[in-house]
Amino acid sequence: MPLFINRDQIFAHQVHLLEHKLRSKEERILELETENALLHLRLAECLGKLRRDNEDILQAQKHHQHQKHVQESTQTALAKLLSEVQVLKQDLRDVSAVYVSCATELEEHSRELQMRVGTASCAPQGDAGEIQALQAQVDALQHSLQEEKERCKAERLRRKLLHNALVELRGNIRVHCRVRPVLPFDSAPGQSASGTGSTLSEEVVHAVNDDSVLVNCSKSGASAMSKMFEFERVHGPEDSQENVSDEVKPLLTSLLDGYNVCIMAYGQTGSGKTHTMIGSQAEDLMGPEGTPLQGIIPKSAAELFRLISEKPAESYTVEVSVVEVYNNEVFDLLSKDGEGGAAGVKRDVITTSTGTSEVPALTYELVCSSADVMQVLSAVLRLRARSPTLVHRDSSRSHLIVTLTVTSKSPNALALARRLQSARKDVQRSHQKEWWSPRCRRAVSGRRRLDEQSASPASSPCHSPCHSPYPSPRPSIAQAPIRTKLQLVDLAGSECVGMSGVTGAALWETSCINRSLSALSDVLGALAEQRPHVPYRNSKLTHLLQDSIGGDAKLLVMLCVSPTQRFLAESLQSLGFGTRARQVQREPARRKNAALKIKRV
Ligand SMILES: Nc1ncnc2c1ncn2[C@@H]1O[C@H](COP(=O)(O)OP(=O)(O)OP(=O)(O)O)[C@@H](O)[C@H]1O
């Protein structure tokens, strides 16, 4: 049967198909319109965000401008403040001079009157009236002398405050640099610097003035290139040991005012660290009358004992301890063996409950003069690890730390104020520790109050080390002696293994030296960036020096630099270290307070 298809049916089918197509198109249009609407919404959102971001950028720019302005005005104010402090210091010096002459005059006058009273009292009764008048005059003079003395005392305290404020304004970390003279070992015979055409002994590091070092670091074929570094003080080859030591003396005043002080020499091997810190015995370097050219350690000890001699007798005691950090181990160089001979015993470094670092069982010796200190030191220096390298035939392979611990039985007002401040901080810290300890978290808050009342040793500040001769009952904060540390550090030399030509055990020594110096650099970097964690415990050296590098202790880094082409890379490394150290700003809030204090004084 032939297949007959109705035309209407075909049309109806086509219409159906078209209607279906139309519906799907309409659905697609709807989808696209929805997408479009969503995109519009996104666009609006993005535009809004862009506008907000622009506003934020504008705000940030304004903030930045404001900060810049504040920084500029702060710098101007600081400069002004510094010059005011200088003027004030001069004024105080003048006032003191006037006071001294006034006091002498008054004392002479008073003596004269007393003599006259004495003579008059031997005279007949009729002179009684005159005697009384003279006695009244003497009393008045003595009264005004007493007043002058009080005023002078107040002025002295004010001068101390100004001194410490000035040191703090300059920053608690100061960097000095010493460029030593050219020495015979600066050139290996017959050698010249590769490709530069210059000889190894050519001078490329120059102390151009009191605070700048210029380094010529031209490369072969390149045009002359030089770098300038700035430090608080720069010493050139012609500067004597005396000049270098004089610059560190102001820090010793701060030591007696209750600050920990650290002076450390940093530099490449053979750059003059031991010469600067201890001194040289070499015959050709002998000072006048054949005395050895004493370095910072003997000169600082002498200055410290000079300052102490100006205080009331027996108000200070000084103890010395000497340790070396060798291959990341701490050795007590003053410990004695069975027969009383010197023997370096290995010791540990711990952090106490108050957050300070301590070496348990460390040997201390009581010293009464700079000569005592040097006698102790020269007896143990032979124990220090040394070995020849290609650069330096008597190279120190360890870090030497000489610590003078000063105990003050009658601290001055400033030191007492500092003690109260640090005691308050210790109590806060130990309360925080208690609060976070699992025992305490379990305990009810009422029990905590009881703990505080019973004043556990952990929450009361201990200012004396464990070997202190002051047993219980613990003296009050005002009565307990104040102990401050002067740490004098002769670091081992940073060096390039290839240049020093070391192998075997010496290679291990060099690697330990370089690692501990880079740990020191890391600590300074963390402090400069104000990171919450400072990696003091990454090496024994930084752990030992923790109290002097952190907090408000005063640190002076003495960069020692060789002047010649041969050690250019090492010198640049040392100068870079010094520049980083200068970027550390410790306890800015405290410095600000100190600055305000000056205005108020
Ligand atoms: N300013 C200077 N004037 C004269 N001689 C110096 C000076 N600085 C260093 N010297 C001499 O240079 C030599 C090396 O100095 P020093 O021993 O102090 O180096 P160093 O940096 O301690 O080396 P290392 O880290 O290897 O122990 C010594 O003979 C020293 O007398």
TrEMBL record:
Name-wise, this protein is Kinesin motor domain-containing protein
Q: Name one GO biological process term.
A: microtubule-based movement
GO CC: one term? microtubule cytoskeleton
Q: Where does ATP bind?
A: G267, Q268, T269, G270, S271, G272, K273, T274
Q: Has keyword Lipid biosynthesis? A: no
SUPFAM superfamilies, A to Z:
P-loop containing nucleoside triphosphate hydrolases
Q: Which GO terms describe its molecular function?
A: ATP binding; microtubule binding; microtubule motor activity
The Low complexity compositionally biased stretches are 454-467
| Ranges in a coiled coil | 15-42, 131-158
List every stretch annotated Disordered.
446-477
Q: Which PANTHER family match?
A: KINESIN FAMILY MEMBER 25 (PTHR47972:SF63), KINESIN-LIKE PROTEIN KLP-3 (PTHR47972)
Family that this chain belongs to: Belongs to the TRAFAC class myosin-kinesin ATPase superfamily. Kinesin family.
Keyword Cytoplasm belongs to the record: yes
Q: Which UniProt keywords apply?
A: ATP-binding, Coiled coil, Cytoplasm, Cytoskeleton, Motor protein, Nucleotide-binding
By its UniProt entry, which Pfam families does this protein fall under? Kinesin
Which compartment or compartments is the protein found in? Answer: Cytoplasm, Cytoskeleton
Q: What is the lineage of its organism?
A: Eukaryota, Metazoa, Chordata, Craniata, Vertebrata
The Kinesin motor domain covers 172-584
Q: Which domain of life is it from?
A: Eukaryota
